[in-house]
Structure formats: structure tokens, C-alpha cells
Amino acid sequence: MVSLNPIRILKNEAEEEKAEVARMSSFIGAIAIGDLVKSTLGPKGMDKILVSAGRNAGQVEVTNDGATILKSIGVDNPAAKILVDMSKVQDDEVGDGTTSVTVLAAELLREAEKLIEQKLHPQIVIAGWRIAVEAAKQALADVSFDHEKNLNEAALRADLENIARTTLSSKILANHKEHFTKLAVDAVLRLKGSGNLKAIQIIKISGGILEESFLDEGFLLNKKIGVHQPKRMENCNILIANTPMDTDKIKVFGSTIKVDSMAKIAELEVAEKEKMKDKVNKILAHKCNVFINRQLIYNYPEQLFADAGVMAIEHADFEGIERLALVMGGEIVSTFDTPSKVKLGHCKVIEEMLIGDESLIRFSGVALGSACTVVVRGATQQIIDEAERSLHDALCVLTATVKEPKVVCGGGMIQKQGHWVPYELKLRDVKRCFLTCKLLLQRQKRKGFLHRIVTGDEKRIHYDNLKCRKLWGSSEMLMAEAVSRAASRTPGKEALATEAFATALRRLPAAVADNAGYDSAELVARLRAHHAQGENTMGLDMENGRVGDMKKLGVTESYVVKRQMLVSAAEAAEMILRVDNILKSAPRRRGPDRRPC
Predict the structure, then answer these.
(1) Rounded CA gap, 509 and 516, in Å?
(2) Angle ∠(414,419,421) on CA atoms, nearest 5
(3) Are 550 and 557 in contact (CB under 8 A)?
(4) What are the GO cellular component annotations (predicted)?
(5) Quick one: pLDDT at residue 272?
(6) What is the chain's Cα-based Rg?
(7) For residues 360, 363, 368 and 372, what is the CA-based torsion angle, rounded to 10 degrees?
(8) Contacts of 576 (CB under 8 A, 6+ apart)
């Protein structure tokens, strides 16, 4: 007789979700994460209040940064965890676009769910998505502009300022973006293309207002100089260490010392002081006049350093001494037996300074000349925490742009009347640029347009009586239109998936409009109409709730951020769509140890 009871293969602790159930679970988790952060998207996005539980119960954080929100919440859904990890990677790689990449991945899966309901196989959907990604990447690359070869320093700075303004427009610093744009661009330009963000220190000091934040060309350490130490030192040779400066502890569990008189205790204290004195003498043998230690420096060694005229700075935490070693050109040491092999750090002046009610130590003339410090002021801890996150995002975007100097949505150069403008072009780019300028001329009712192409390695275009620049509008809408054109050329069912990708891209500007309280359906429809007519300079003007000319608004974004957002969202959505089984099981338990002792 055949039994109708199901045959269980997995152990009791294991769970399994199959086929449609697994796919539905993944869709629900990913879409929920996207909807969670969607309201923070855009220059008028909303903020979230994060209240900690457990050990840090009651701690409040106010932010609209997607990565901060997602890493602060606990998720149990596997697909949701994939999007959370993707947002962290976006934050680590380029600093911005963490919300956009999450929302785009969620919208792709929302469209995929509809296609699956229409009996399209997931592999067909993935094939269509891959066509869409290639079309979108190509469209983005076509309108991007590499300003490294063609722009002077002033124009490069103008481009970086536009990028910083765009990044800060959706942050708490939006009302002070001009001030913080200057701070961020000044700090990044000091790096001189190295892209080493560790050379930029951000210090948060409560009190004052946001506009009192400033850039210091030295390196600031939020610590105090020891008691009776010199408060100013010039031509500093700095020994950076991570060593205990209290007593040498005997690392024997349960060890005790018995004495029969107070004299013996005094002898022990003298012996301990002699050990510490020998250690201080070894440190002084390095010919340093400044000693910075990660750990505490107790009273007796501090007094010995003061007597020797050496400035001692204690409790410079791990991140502090790591950054100090970088900017001072020294190395962190723990033993002091070989002074000749130790590399000391150097700077011109070390002095104490007062900001608000806090004393800080300022290092001027450091070995790493590009090092600097941004001091962020604010009324409350929540404000300065969010301001620090916003500024860090802007610094990351600017650094990524300097490393790969391509920009979209405003990238290009202003072309002065009657001047030759170098620009490397393919033939199709020449035609597109010609047609775009012709449309501009017709719209602005200007005459006297002529163009000329010089063949050879360096192609040039000359415009007379025309002041314009190569500038494109909403990059998401531009990519969506390119994907739609690719879908119209794609045979078979893959075209449905390709068009669905374009729909997901259009949801991003729609979400931005919704968050600002505008009619997204009308605005996106008007924007599509402008792009269909070749007016690629048009985008969403969120200040006035209409379609505006991005050239006049000066909206510029980093090509690296947009490309990373597109690729990461597509890869994460594809990974989730491939899933047809979810297995949950506890780790294998270790068996009892039956070996003899």
C-alpha cells in the first residue's frame, strides 16, 4: 500500500521554501526594503528617526541616508539582506546613490513579479535585463564627458562644485550647500588627485550653527596635551606608539605577592618606577620631542616627559594614531629597543587651540601636505552627526569623480563665442551635437550657426555666435529612453523585460517628484515628451515643480555614481530573481568530545 504521508528529507530544524513561495518571499522582502527608503529620495525627501534598543536603548538618530537607515535595522528576509549589503557596497565604493540603488533594485523586482505572473521564465527576464543594462550603460557613456583633458583648473573646480551641490541638495545641509560645497571641494582639491580620503579628518563639535563649520589646513586631534607639558612645540620629531605607560603587568592568572612590612611595599613601588623610568629613557633615546600614545600615560611617566621637555599626548585612540601615522609620515611602534629602525613623524608646529568649549591639538606643516581637517559645528548631536554623514558622502563622490573624471547631467564645458573648443568625438556624437545645437538655435531664435570638423587625432568643433555647453538632463530618463529604443529592436519575449527595465528607471524621477509633493505622472510625462523631441537638456526642477533646463540649473552628477547604481541594482535584482529555493538550517552542532583527557 502506498503511503500518502510526505517524505521528509531535511532534519527537523531545517526549513524549505520552494518555487513560487520562495520567489514570492524574495519579492516581498526586497520591495519592502525599497519602499522603506523610497520616501527619502530626492532633494525634498523625508527623514527617518532611528531609535536604538538594547544596550544603547533610547539613542536617537535622524537621517535620510539610505545606507545608514538600512544598516541600522535588522532584517530577516534573505532578499532584503542582499539589498542592505548592496547599499553598503554603494556607500563604500562611491559614497552616494545608496537610496537610488536600493529603490531601483526594488522597482526592477516589482516589474519582474508582473512578468512572472504573465508566465515569462526568469531566465528570459534576465536576458532582457542584460540587454537593457548594456543599452543604458552605453547611453550614459555617450553623454558623459571626461573633463580631465579639456578643462583648466577653474572649470574643473566649477564642475566639482556643481556635483557637490547636487549631492548635498538632498541632505540636511541643503540650506547651507554653498558653504559646505566650498569646504568639500577645497578639501578634495588639496588631495591633488590622490583620492586618499584618510587625509581628510572630520571633527564634530557641538555648539554654534552649521555655517560656523570650517576647513583647517592643519591636522586636528580632539585630545589635550598632558599636564605641565609644553603647550607649543616647533620643528617636531614625533614618536607614535601603542604601549602601556602605567606598569608592566604580570600576565599570570591568580598571582599574589605577600609582604610582611610597609617597607617591602615601598621597595615594590620603587622597582616599578625604575622599570617605567627605563622605558621612558628608551623612548627618549629616539631623539623625539613629541610622544603620542594610543593608551593612557600615567602621572609618573608624564612627569618624566615634562622634565625632559618632551610633549606627551595620551589616549589618541586607534583611528587617531592610524591617521596621525599617515599624515605625519611616521610609523606606530610598541617596542623601543632599536631606535635606529624606527621612522619618526614630522611637522612644523604643534599647539593647542580652543573651539567652542573644547580644546584640540593642531598639527601644522605635516609631512603629508594634502592633509586637512573639517570642523563641523551644530546645535545638537543629531544635527552634527547627520551633517558629518552628508559631508562624507559629498567627499566620496568628489574623490570618485577626480579618480575617474567623467560627469553627466551638466558635465561639459562652456563654449565661448568664436573660440576653438577641443572635444574628442565619434561621427554619431558630431551629428547629435549638431542637431542639439540646431534645436537650441531654433528655440532661442539665434542666427549665424556654422560648424567645422577638423580630422586627425584631435577633432574639434567650432561654434560662432552660440554660447552653449554639452549638457544632458535627467540621466535616469535618458537611460530609460535608450532602453526603450533597445526594446523596440529586440525580438521575442526579451523585449517585454527590456521595456520593464525602462519602466523601473522612470520610477526614480517619479519618486523624486512624489516626495516633493508634485504630480509625478504629469511631470514625468512632460519630461518624456521633451526628451522625445531631442531636448535632452531638460530635467525635473524640484524647486518650482516643473520641467526645467538642467543647463541653467547647473545640475551635475558623477558618472561613476550613476554607473555603479545601474550595475549594482541590476546585478542584485538578477541574483534575487534566480532564486527558486530558500533553505534555512541551524549550523551543524559539534558532537561531544569523547577523547580521553
Answers:
(1) 11
(2) 60
(3) no
(4) chaperonin-containing T-complex
(5) 80
(6) 31
(7) 40
(8) 26, 27, 30, 79, 82, 105, 109
Task: Report the distance separating Cα 593 and Cα 597, nearest Å.
Answer: 10
Helix or strand (DSSP H, E) at 145: strand 145-146
Strand partners, 404: none
Q: First vs last Cα of the chain: how many Å apart?
A: 53
Residue-wise pLDDT for 500-539, tens only, equals 999 999 999 899 889 888 888 888 888 888 877 777 667 7
pLDDT in tens, 354-364: 888 888 899 99
* Exposure string over 287-324, b if 16+ CB within 10 A, otherwise e: ebbbbbbbbebeebbbbbbbeeebbbbbebeeebbebb
Pair 372, 187: CB distance under 8 Å: yes
Distance between CA atoms of residues 269 and 299, nearest Å: 14
Quick one: cell of 8?
521528509
pTM for this entry: 0.77
Please provide the CATH number assigned to the domain covering 153-217+379-404: 3.30.260.10
501 CB-near residues (< 8 Å, 6+ apart): 108, 111, 128, 129, 132, 133, 136, 483, 570
For residue 589, give every residue at least 6 positions away whose Cβ sits within 8 Å of its Cβ, in sequence order, or none. none
User: Can you name the residues that pair with 360 across neighbouring β-strands?
Assistant: 353
What is the distance between the alpha carbons of residues 20 and 534, in angstroms, rounded to a whole number? 43
Picking from 33, 375, 383, the residue whose alpha carbon sits closest to that of residue 205 is: 375
| CATH code of the domain occupying 15-144+474-582 | 1.10.560.10
Instruction: Kindly give the parts of the chain with pLDDT less than 70.
Output: 1-13, 147-152, 247-257, 409-474, 536-537, 551-552, 586-588, 591, 593-597
> Residue 16: phi, psi to the nearest 5?
-140, 135
Those residues whose C-beta lies under 8 Å from the C-beta of residue 60, and which sit 6 or more positions away, are 49, 50, 51, 52, 382
Cα–Cα distance between 325 and 345 in angstroms, integer? Answer: 7
What whole-number distance in Å separates Cα of residue 107 and Cα of residue 110? 5
Whether 449 contacts 466, CB under 8 Å? yes
The amino acid occupying position 169 is: S
In CATH, 219-370 is 3.50.7.10: yes
Residue whose cell numbers read 593642531:
362
